[in-house]
Amino acid sequence: MDTFIPLADSKDDVNIHKLCTYGHVKELKELLGIVDVVTIEATAGEGDGDEPGTPRGSDDEADVDGEDSQVSPPNSPGPGSPVPGASPRIAEDVDIDGQSLAGQTALSLCAQEGHLDCLKILLTQGADLGAPSSGGLTALMAAANKYQEACMKALIEAGADVNAQSDTGLTPVYFSIVRGVLACLKLLVSAGGDMSFKTTQGGSFIHVAAINGNVGLMKYLTEVSRSVTTHIYHYIHLSHLMHLTQLFTF
Protein backbone atom coordinates (compact mmCIF):
# COMPACT_ATOMS: atom_id res chain seq x y z
CA MET A 1 0.00 0.00 0.00
CA ASP A 2 1.33 3.42 -0.97
CA THR A 3 2.28 5.79 1.80
CA PHE A 4 -0.12 8.71 1.99
CA ILE A 5 1.61 12.07 1.78
CA PRO A 6 -0.55 15.11 2.51
CA LEU A 7 -0.07 17.96 0.03
CA ALA A 8 -0.84 20.58 2.65
CA ASP A 9 1.16 20.65 5.84
CA SER A 10 1.54 23.68 8.08
CA LYS A 11 4.95 22.40 9.20
CA ASP A 12 6.33 22.19 5.67
CA ASP A 13 4.48 23.95 2.89
CA VAL A 14 7.03 22.96 0.25
CA ASN A 15 5.44 19.70 -0.86
CA ILE A 16 8.08 18.82 -3.43
CA HIS A 17 10.45 17.81 -0.62
CA LYS A 18 7.99 15.29 0.83
CA LEU A 19 7.42 13.66 -2.53
CA CYS A 20 11.15 13.43 -3.28
CA THR A 21 11.87 11.97 0.15
CA TYR A 22 9.44 9.11 -0.40
CA GLY A 23 9.93 8.74 -4.15
CA HIS A 24 6.36 9.43 -5.27
CA VAL A 25 6.77 9.72 -9.03
CA LYS A 26 3.13 10.22 -10.04
CA GLU A 27 2.46 12.86 -7.40
CA LEU A 28 5.71 14.67 -8.24
CA LYS A 29 4.67 14.91 -11.89
CA GLU A 30 1.29 16.29 -10.85
CA LEU A 31 2.88 18.84 -8.54
CA LEU A 32 5.23 20.03 -11.29
CA GLY A 33 2.41 20.13 -13.80
CA ILE A 34 3.84 17.40 -16.03
CA VAL A 35 1.39 15.55 -18.23
CA ASP A 36 2.53 12.69 -20.44
CA VAL A 37 2.07 13.40 -24.12
CA VAL A 38 -0.96 11.64 -25.60
CA THR A 39 -2.93 12.23 -28.77
CA ILE A 40 -6.58 12.09 -29.64
CA GLU A 41 -7.59 9.28 -31.98
CA ALA A 42 -8.85 10.21 -35.42
CA THR A 43 -12.39 9.21 -34.45
CA ALA A 44 -14.68 12.08 -33.60
CA GLY A 45 -17.46 10.00 -32.07
CA GLU A 46 -20.83 9.05 -33.44
CA GLY A 47 -21.78 10.23 -36.87
CA ASP A 48 -18.27 10.38 -38.42
CA GLY A 49 -18.67 7.05 -40.20
CA ASP A 50 -16.11 5.14 -38.09
CA GLU A 51 -18.58 3.40 -35.81
CA PRO A 52 -20.47 0.51 -37.45
CA GLY A 53 -24.23 0.88 -37.60
CA THR A 54 -24.16 4.68 -37.50
CA PRO A 55 -23.76 5.80 -41.10
CA ARG A 56 -23.37 9.47 -41.82
CA GLY A 57 -26.56 11.12 -42.92
CA SER A 58 -28.95 8.79 -41.07
CA ASP A 59 -32.47 9.92 -40.21
CA ASP A 60 -31.42 10.34 -36.56
CA GLU A 61 -29.26 13.29 -37.46
CA ALA A 62 -30.69 16.72 -38.11
CA ASP A 63 -29.00 19.45 -40.09
CA VAL A 64 -29.02 22.98 -38.87
CA ASP A 65 -28.34 25.64 -41.51
CA GLY A 66 -26.84 22.95 -43.71
CA GLU A 67 -24.29 21.88 -41.06
CA ASP A 68 -24.02 18.70 -39.03
CA SER A 69 -25.86 19.12 -35.75
CA GLN A 70 -23.15 17.27 -33.83
CA VAL A 71 -20.78 19.90 -32.51
CA SER A 72 -17.55 19.18 -30.62
CA PRO A 73 -17.49 20.21 -26.97
CA PRO A 74 -15.99 23.65 -26.27
CA ASN A 75 -12.15 23.76 -26.22
CA SER A 76 -11.88 20.13 -27.28
CA PRO A 77 -8.79 19.23 -29.37
CA GLY A 78 -9.21 18.11 -32.95
CA PRO A 79 -8.35 14.62 -34.17
CA GLY A 80 -4.64 13.85 -33.93
CA SER A 81 -3.77 16.96 -31.92
CA PRO A 82 -2.01 16.90 -28.51
CA VAL A 83 -4.12 17.05 -25.40
CA PRO A 84 -3.96 20.54 -23.82
CA GLY A 85 -1.19 20.69 -21.24
CA ALA A 86 0.60 17.67 -22.68
CA SER A 87 3.94 19.44 -22.98
CA PRO A 88 6.14 19.01 -19.89
CA ARG A 89 6.16 22.18 -17.83
CA ILE A 90 6.82 23.41 -14.29
CA ALA A 91 4.03 24.76 -12.15
CA GLU A 92 4.84 28.41 -11.50
CA ASP A 93 4.28 28.17 -7.75
CA VAL A 94 6.88 25.43 -7.20
CA ASP A 95 10.47 26.40 -6.36
CA ILE A 96 12.30 23.37 -7.71
CA ASP A 97 15.66 24.44 -6.22
CA GLY A 98 14.40 25.74 -2.89
CA GLN A 99 15.44 24.27 0.45
CA SER A 100 13.15 22.39 2.79
CA LEU A 101 12.78 23.45 6.40
CA ALA A 102 15.61 21.03 7.15
CA GLY A 103 17.79 22.83 4.61
CA GLN A 104 17.81 20.27 1.78
CA THR A 105 16.98 20.68 -1.88
CA ALA A 106 14.56 18.33 -3.64
CA LEU A 107 17.38 17.07 -5.85
CA SER A 108 19.53 16.22 -2.82
CA LEU A 109 16.65 14.36 -1.20
CA CYS A 110 16.14 12.24 -4.31
CA ALA A 111 19.87 11.59 -4.49
CA GLN A 112 20.39 10.54 -0.89
CA GLU A 113 17.29 8.35 -0.82
CA GLY A 114 18.11 6.69 -4.14
CA HIS A 115 14.90 7.70 -5.91
CA LEU A 116 16.34 7.69 -9.42
CA ASP A 117 13.04 8.23 -11.27
CA CYS A 118 12.22 11.33 -9.24
CA LEU A 119 15.77 12.59 -9.67
CA LYS A 120 15.53 12.24 -13.46
CA ILE A 121 12.23 14.14 -13.45
CA LEU A 122 13.85 17.04 -11.62
CA LEU A 123 16.80 17.01 -14.02
CA THR A 124 14.53 17.15 -17.07
CA GLN A 125 12.72 20.07 -15.46
CA GLY A 126 15.91 22.08 -15.10
CA ALA A 127 16.88 21.51 -11.47
CA ASP A 128 20.16 23.24 -10.62
CA LEU A 129 22.89 20.61 -10.16
CA GLY A 130 24.88 23.01 -8.02
CA ALA A 131 22.04 24.27 -5.83
CA PRO A 132 23.36 23.75 -2.29
CA SER A 133 21.64 22.29 0.70
CA SER A 134 22.54 23.43 4.19
CA GLY A 135 26.31 23.51 4.64
CA GLY A 136 26.91 23.86 0.92
CA LEU A 137 26.28 20.19 0.19
CA THR A 138 25.37 19.42 -3.41
CA ALA A 139 23.15 16.60 -4.64
CA LEU A 140 26.23 14.64 -5.74
CA MET A 141 27.69 14.91 -2.24
CA ALA A 142 24.39 13.72 -0.78
CA ALA A 143 24.38 10.72 -3.12
CA ALA A 144 28.02 9.89 -2.34
CA ASN A 145 27.36 10.18 1.38
CA LYS A 146 24.60 7.58 1.07
CA TYR A 147 26.50 5.49 -1.55
CA GLN A 148 23.70 5.84 -4.11
CA GLU A 149 25.73 4.81 -7.14
CA ALA A 150 22.92 5.00 -9.72
CA CYS A 151 21.97 8.52 -8.67
CA MET A 152 25.63 9.54 -8.65
CA LYS A 153 26.01 8.30 -12.21
CA ALA A 154 22.90 10.17 -13.37
CA LEU A 155 24.11 13.40 -11.75
CA ILE A 156 27.59 13.09 -13.24
CA GLU A 157 26.17 12.39 -16.71
CA ALA A 158 24.00 15.49 -16.31
CA GLY A 159 27.11 17.58 -15.64
CA ALA A 160 27.41 17.72 -11.85
CA ASP A 161 30.72 19.12 -10.57
CA VAL A 162 32.64 16.14 -9.15
CA ASN A 163 35.05 18.52 -7.41
CA ALA A 164 32.55 20.88 -5.83
CA GLN A 165 33.33 21.74 -2.21
CA SER A 166 31.05 22.14 0.75
CA ASP A 167 31.32 25.08 3.13
CA THR A 168 33.98 23.12 5.03
CA GLY A 169 35.91 22.07 1.92
CA LEU A 170 34.60 18.51 1.63
CA THR A 171 34.12 16.95 -1.81
CA PRO A 172 32.09 14.05 -3.26
CA VAL A 173 35.29 11.96 -3.33
CA TYR A 174 35.75 12.57 0.40
CA PHE A 175 32.24 11.36 1.19
CA SER A 176 32.69 8.22 -0.91
CA ILE A 177 35.92 7.39 0.91
CA VAL A 178 34.41 8.01 4.34
CA ARG A 179 31.54 5.69 3.44
CA GLY A 180 34.00 3.14 2.10
CA VAL A 181 32.26 2.21 -1.16
CA LEU A 182 34.87 1.44 -3.81
CA ALA A 183 32.44 1.48 -6.76
CA CYS A 184 31.33 5.02 -5.91
CA LEU A 185 34.93 6.16 -5.52
CA LYS A 186 35.94 4.67 -8.87
CA LEU A 187 32.98 6.40 -10.52
CA LEU A 188 34.13 9.77 -9.22
CA VAL A 189 37.79 9.17 -10.09
CA SER A 190 36.88 8.17 -13.65
CA ALA A 191 34.89 11.40 -13.93
CA GLY A 192 37.91 13.49 -12.92
CA GLY A 193 37.61 13.58 -9.15
CA ASP A 194 40.50 15.47 -7.53
CA MET A 195 42.63 13.22 -5.35
CA SER A 196 44.84 15.95 -3.89
CA PHE A 197 42.61 16.55 -0.88
CA LYS A 198 44.23 17.37 2.45
CA THR A 199 42.59 17.36 5.86
CA THR A 200 43.10 20.21 8.32
CA GLN A 201 45.88 18.08 9.81
CA GLY A 202 47.50 17.60 6.42
CA GLY A 203 46.28 14.04 5.88
CA SER A 204 45.49 12.62 2.45
CA PHE A 205 42.62 10.44 1.28
CA ILE A 206 44.74 7.39 2.10
CA HIS A 207 44.90 8.55 5.72
CA VAL A 208 41.10 8.96 5.76
CA ALA A 209 40.68 5.40 4.48
CA ALA A 210 43.24 4.14 7.01
CA ILE A 211 41.40 5.77 9.90
CA ASN A 212 38.24 3.95 8.79
CA GLY A 213 40.16 0.68 8.45
CA ASN A 214 39.14 0.16 4.82
CA VAL A 215 41.89 -1.99 3.33
CA GLY A 216 40.28 -2.16 -0.12
CA LEU A 217 40.11 1.59 -0.45
CA MET A 218 43.65 1.98 0.86
CA LYS A 219 44.94 -0.41 -1.78
CA TYR A 220 43.05 1.36 -4.56
CA LEU A 221 44.12 4.81 -3.39
CA THR A 222 47.73 3.64 -3.19
CA GLU A 223 47.53 2.41 -6.78
CA VAL A 224 45.98 5.69 -7.93
CA SER A 225 48.64 7.69 -6.08
CA ARG A 226 51.40 5.54 -7.55
CA SER A 227 50.13 6.01 -11.08
CA VAL A 228 49.95 9.77 -10.59
CA THR A 229 53.44 9.84 -9.07
CA THR A 230 54.83 7.72 -11.90
CA HIS A 231 53.24 10.01 -14.46
CA ILE A 232 54.81 13.07 -12.79
CA TYR A 233 58.17 11.30 -12.61
CA HIS A 234 58.11 10.46 -16.29
CA TYR A 235 57.08 14.00 -17.13
CA ILE A 236 59.97 15.48 -15.13
CA HIS A 237 62.37 12.89 -16.51
CA LEU A 238 61.41 13.63 -20.11
CA SER A 239 61.52 17.34 -19.41
CA HIS A 240 65.10 17.02 -18.15
CA LEU A 241 66.07 14.98 -21.19
CA MET A 242 64.72 17.70 -23.47
CA HIS A 243 66.73 20.33 -21.60
CA LEU A 244 69.86 18.18 -21.81
CA THR A 245 69.31 17.65 -25.52
CA GLN A 246 68.98 21.39 -26.03
CA LEU A 247 72.07 22.00 -23.88
CA PHE A 248 74.34 19.70 -25.91
CA THR A 249 72.96 20.70 -29.31
CA PHE A 250 75.16 23.37 -30.85
Name the poorly predicted regions: 1-13, 39-44, 60-88, 228-250
Q: What oligomeric state is this? A: single chain
The total count of strands amounts to: 2
Sequence of strands across the biggest β-sheet: 1-2
Overall pLDDT level: 75
Instruction: Compute the CA-based radius of gyration.
Output: 29 Å
* CATH architecture label of the domain at 1-39 and 83-164: Alpha Horseshoe
Main sheet record: 2 strands, antiparallel
- Cα shape: elongated
Percentage of residues in strands: under 5%
Measured distance between first and last alpha carbons? 85 Å
Q: State the order of secondary-structure elements, H for helix, E for strand.
A: HHEEHHHHHHHH
SS class: mainly alpha
Which CATH class of the domain at 1-39 and 83-164 is shown? Answer: Mainly Alpha
For the record, what is the CATH homologous superfamily label of the domain at 1-39 and 83-164?
Ankyrin repeat-containing domain
How do the strands and helices of this protein lay out in sequence?
Elements: H1 15-22, H2 25-32, E1 63-64, E2 67-68, H3 106-113, H4 116-124, H5 139-145, H6 149-157, H7 172-179, H8 182-190, H9 205-211, H10 215-247
Antiparallel strand pairs: 1-2
Helix pairs in contact: 1-2, 1-3, 3-4, 3-5, 4-6, 5-6, 5-7, 6-8, 7-8, 9-10
What this model shows, in words?
- This protein has about 250 residues and is mainly alpha-helical.
- It has a domain at about 1-40 and about 85-165: Ankyrin repeat-containing domain (Serine Threonine Protein Phosphatase 5, Tetratricopeptide repeat, Alpha Horseshoe), CATH 1.25.40.
- Helices cover about 40% and strands about 0% of the residues.
- It has helices spanning about 15-20, 25-30, 105-115, 115-125, 140-145, 150-155, 170-180, 180-190, 205-210, 215-245; strands at about 65, 65-70.
- The chain has a two-stranded antiparallel ribbon with strand order 1-2.
- Strand 1 (about 65) and strand 2 (about 65-70) form a beta hairpin.
- The protein is elongated, with a radius of gyration of 29 Å.
